[in-house]
Amino acid sequence: MNASIISPVVPALPGFGVPVAASDAAVAPLVRRPLPLPSLISGRTSTVVYGLAALDERGRIADRVVLRALGWSAGQRLVIGEIGGVLTVHADPMGAYQVTGQGHLRLPAPLRHRYGLAAADRVLLAADPTRSQLTVYPPAALDSALAHYTHGGEPA
Questions:
Q1: 3-state SS string for 90-129
Q2: What ranges do the domains of the chain cover?
Q3: Half-sphere exposure of 87 (CA within 13 A, CB side)
């Protein structure tokens, strides 16, 4: 019985410690190309500070980083309004609402009910320190904003 040599499935490459047969010399070296990368969005253009927080059973939002970025602390008087499906919060010495003693922002019950917000619901917070404004995006507003994009991430 004569044994025959079986060619390797992956040919050996010169310089990798495995002798290369004369017949393998014709094998072209593997060419490495860079991996394709997605195009990235350019750098930040604003000083907006973002946060994501869950409402507690009393409608309080506890995100100290966002409130600290605005310079708001316990007792800060606030005005809470609504524009286009989102809540806006401004510092105002005559405001009817205030940051709690624990440093939380409490959303009034009528606004929570109007926007379908319940305990444990998460909201997106966008603090703009230059305007001393906090914008609170309920899930319905985020759903609406994201509906304008296709599954591939391109604008519709």
A1: EECCCCCEECCCCCCEECCHHHHHHCCCCCCCEEEEEEEC
A2: 49-146
A3: 26
Task: Give the whole-angstrom CA distance, residue 129 versus residue 56.
Answer: 25
The Cα–Cα gap between 156 and 152 comes to 10
Tokens matching residue 154: 């391109």
pTM > 0.85: yes or no? no
Contact (Cβ atoms closer than 8 angstroms) between residue 63 and residue 136: no
Q: Give the CATH superfamily of 49-146.
A: Transcriptional regulator MraZ domain (3.40.1550.20)
Q: Per-residue pLDDT tens for 37-68?
A: 777 667 777 889 999 999 999 999 999 899 99
